[in-house]
């Protein structure tokens, strides 16, 4: 399993030779052993990539992310290879027990709200009347029902974004530069989760809560929820001086290599996310009765 | 973690040269970087993968000749002093998790 994130940002030819990814730029050749690569992000429209390399990347379960001319991720490459129990897993996934799905979703939303509250507490964000902002979110925790039938997620999200950034902040408006950071960062997280789901031999289309007909990544969109706060943190740190250039994007990509403290010790964020995804899939497929729960220090 | 391979193998007969080529090609395919002639190095994430890789190189080590291996931590490796010459700038010679090209 790879551990390097390779980001190509300039005019280059990307090819394969003797188990290596070869990136040939105008004045340099970089060779990276394919076994080391976890994610290949092509953050330019000025690169060419060979089909032989694409084949080897898919054989090695390496995530490839493509970006548009504004360097925003537009899509990714998901392989057929990966896992020999894929067919068996997919038949299980289609009939995942609805109670398990509801309980897991409840748990995920609780983790998400807890992390959002921790973020507000860390940055000492307050309500409009000046009182600490995180307590209201913590109060919502007990009201989260199986399947989040009362939709506390949306209530928490509204409170959270307005308190973290500003009351004027709107997730849907492009004029807030932070939205660029958030969209970019979430895409990177989503790719890692999608990669792990594919590696484990499951479909990303069939989610436990998200069920949009237009979304290929319903399951990834479910499992990303507790981890969004790490992107929010980076966006928040730049909120005062908005910029969104290549350095900002690279910082968001490098987020996966950040060390975080969990209840089972220190680990890289990418590792924590992968463990979480595996645990969720095991729970949904009846391989364990333990609900996956990760406490993260923020 | 670093796995270092040092070797000195004969190239007298055609068979010797075939064995040498096999060793060299395996080292290249496994992602080793030549830091000096007959000295190769590979960055690895943990001791376990270093041990596995060492076993794979064992399989292609020629019977005649000497091939030595050494596993050291990143910290120990970084304490190499250059009495002459300098470090090779190559992705394969760093343990950076993010490579920006």
UniProtKB/TrEMBL annotation, chain A:
Its cofactor is Mg(2+); Mn(2+). Keywords: Antiviral defense, DNA-binding, Endonuclease, Hydrolase, Magnesium, Manganese, Metal-binding, Nuclease. InterPro entries: Cas1, CRISPR-assoc_Cas1, CRISPR-assoc_Cas1_C, CRISPR-assoc_Cas1_N, CRISPR-assoc_Cas1_NMENI. Mn(2+) binds at residues 153, 210, 225. It comes from the Bacteria. Gene3D superfamilies: CRISPR-associated endonuclease Cas1, C-terminal domain (1.20.120.920), CRISPR-associated endonuclease Cas1, N-terminal domain (3.100.10.20). It is an enzyme of class 3 (hydrolase). Its EC number is 3.1.-.-. GO terms for biological process: defense response to virus; maintenance of CRISPR repeat elements. GO terms for molecular function: DNA binding; DNA endonuclease activity; hydrolase activity; metal ion binding. Pfam families: Cas_Cas1 (PF01867). NCBIfam families: cas1, cas1_NMENI. CRISPR (clustered regularly interspaced short palindromic repeat), is an adaptive immune system that provides protection against mobile genetic elements (viruses, transposable elements and conjugative plasmids). CRISPR clusters contain spacers, sequences complementary to antecedent mobile elements, and target invading nucleic acids. CRISPR clusters are transcribed and processed into CRISPR RNA (crRNA). Acts as a dsDNA endonuclease. Involved in the integration of spacer DNA into the CRISPR cassette. PANTHER family: CRISPR-ASSOCIATED ENDONUCLEASE CAS1 1. Homodimer, forms a heterotetramer with a Cas2 homodimer. Belongs to the CRISPR-associated endonuclease Cas1 family. HAMAP family: Cas1. This is CRISPR-associated endonuclease Cas1. It comes from Xylocopilactobacillus apicola. The gene is cas1_1.
